Amino acid sequence: MTQFEPVIGIEVHAQLKTNTKLFCRCSTQFGGEPNAHTCPRCLGMPGALPVLNQTAVEFAIKAGLALNCDIQHKSVFARKNYFYPDLPKGYQISQFELPICLNGHLDIELPDGSTKRIGITRIHMEEDAGKLVHQGAEAIAGSTHSFVDLNRAGVPLIEIVSEPDIRSAEEARIYMETLQLILRYVGVCDGNLEEGSLRADANVSLRPVGTTPFGTRTETKNINSFRSLERAINSEITRQTALILSGGKVIQQTRNYHDNTQTTTVLRDKEDSHDYRYFPDPDLLPLLVSQTQIDAVKTTLPELPNAQRKRYMEQLGLSEFEAMVLVQDIPMNHYFTAVLDQNPQIDKTELAKWLVGDINAALKEANKGFDNCPIQIAHTASLLTLLTTGKISGKMAKAFIPDMIQTQKSPDDLLAASGGGQIDNSDDLGPIIDQILTQNPDVAEKIKAGKTQSANFLMGQVMKATGGRAKPDLVIDLILKKVTG
Ligand SMILES: [Zn+2]
C-alpha cells in the first residue's frame, strides 16, 4: 500500500496593533457598537481616497525583520476584486506582485529537541474586510437574515505565507505558536486568536512518500485555535488519504473546518489568483522604503524569544523550564527584567524560581497578573535578599507572598510583624523540638525503628510552633539526632 506524506503550508493573517485603520483614521479597537468605527473611506464612498498609515508600514517591516525577510524598497498596493456584502468597495486593497517582505524563515523547535527551518515566502500588507452577523443560525446557511458590521473593514493586516515546508499537523501548530510569540515580542500584533487578531489557513496536499511533485492542495479556513489547527489538518489528511486510496481525486478547494465534528466541508471550489483581476491601485503610489527607514526599525527590534531563552539558560543559569516559562509569559518576563535591572546583584536563578513558582501561583490565586503586579519590584528584591541571606526560610517567604499582594507591605515589615527571622540555631530550636518529641512519643518510636520520613510530621509540628520560622534542614538534623541519639 502506498504511504503518503502531507505537504503543508500555512497562511497567517495577523492584525497589526495600530490605533487606526490602514487607510483612514478610524479606530481599530475590537468590539464597539456596530459600524461605529467607520468613515467615508472605509465605507467605500465614491471619491474618498485612501491615505496610508505609516505605523502599519513600520510594523510590517518589523515583522519582516523578525522573520528574517528581505524588506523590499518598493512594494505596490493592488486591488483584489470580488463581491461580498462585508466588502463595501467591491475590492480589497492588498499587495500582490510586489509585497513588502520576501524570502524569510522561522526556526521551530520540535518535541525531540531538534530545530526545523520553515521558509517564509512573503509577507504582504492588506486591509481586513468587515463582518457578517447571521441571525437564526451560526452560519449563513439556515439563517433568517444577516447584518453587516464594518468596524473591522480597513483594519491593517499582514499576511504571512509560509513555504510548504511543514510535514505534520503538530509542526503546523508549533510553527503557529512560535510565530504568535515572535509577533507579540516585537509588539506588532496582540496574537489573540479568539478575537481573530491572528488567523490561520492551512494548505494541505498529499504525495507518495519519496516523490517530489506536490499533489492537489486544499485550503482550510475557519481555524481559531492552536488545537483546531492541528485537528483541522489531521482531518484533512485523513479525508484526502481515504479519497486517494478509494480511487478518487483531490479537488482544489477552499474548505471550512468545524470544531464540533472535527471535519472539513467544501466552502467553494478554489479560485486562482487570476480570478481576482488584481491590478495596482490607482489611488495609491508605490510604497517606497529606504534603507535608512529599515535600519531605523531594526534598532527598535527587541531580543527575540529563542535568543533570549538561550541567554537566560547560558548566561543567567536558569533551568530550561524557567527560561521557557519566562519567555512565553511576556508580562512575567518584563517583571523579571525590571527586578534584575534595578538589582543586578540579585540571585537570578532564585528570582526566576520564585517568580515562575510561588509568586505566579499566588498572583493567580488573587486573580491578578504580572501586568500591574501589586508587589512592588523593590519588595520582590528584598524578599529574595532575605531568603538568600538566610534571614527567612522558604516557608516564611511563601507565607509572606499573599500578604505582599493583599496589603502591599514590604517583606521587612512582615518579618518584623512575625516576631523575627528564621530560627537557625540549635540553642533556640532544641527546647521546642524536645517538647514536640514528648508530645508525640509514637512518632519518635517510628523514627527510631528506621522510618525516618516520619520526621517530616514532627517538622510540621515544629513549624507550627515557630510560625514557620524554623530552619527546616536543621530541624530534621536535630530530630534525628535526638531520637537516635
Ligand atoms: Zn474609516
Radius of gyration: 30 Å
- Kindly give the count of domains: 3
Helix fraction? 25-40%
Distance between the termini: 74 Å
Mean pLDDT: 92
Please give the number of β-strands. Answer: 16
Task: Summarize the helices and strands and which ones pair or pack.
Blueprint: E1 4-15, H1 54-66, E2 70-71, E3 74-75, E4 77-81, E5 91-95, E6 101-109, E7 115-127, E8 131-135, E9 145-149, E10 156-162, H2 169-186, E11 198-208, E12 218-223, H3 226-245, E13 253-258, E14 263-269, E15 279-280, E16 287-288, H4 291-298, H5 305-314, H6 320-328, H7 330-342, H8 348-365, H9 377-388, H10 394-407, H11 411-417, H12 426-439, H13 441-448, H14 455-466, H15 472-484
Parallel strand pairs: 12-13
Antiparallel strand pairs: 1-10, 1-11, 2-6, 3-16, 4-5, 4-15, 6-7, 7-10, 8-9, 11-12, 13-14
Helix pairs in contact: 2-3, 5-6, 7-9, 8-10, 12-14, 12-15, 14-15
Record keyword descriptors for this entry.
16 strands, elongated, alpha+beta, Arc Repressor Mutant, subunit A, 15 helices, 485 residues, binds zinc ion
Outline the structure in words.
By secondary structure, the chain is α+β, with helices and mostly antiparallel strands. It has three domains: 9-208 and 273-296, no CATH class; 305-417, no CATH class; 426-484, Arc Repressor Mutant, subunit A (Orthogonal Bundle). Helix content is 39%, strand content 20%. It is built from 15 helices and 16 strands. It has helices at 54-66, 169-186, 226-245, 291-298, 305-314, 320-328, 330-342, 348-365, 377-388, 394-407, 411-417, 426-439, 441-448, 455-466, 472-484, and strands spanning 4-15, 70-71, 74-75, 77-81, 91-95, 101-109, 115-127, 131-135, 145-149, 156-162, 198-208, 218-223, 253-258, 263-269, 279-280, 287-288. A nine-stranded mixed beta sheet has the order 2-6-7-10-1-11-12-13-14. The termini are far apart. Zinc ion binds next to loops. Residues 21, 24, 26, 38-39, 41-42, 154 line the site of zinc ion.
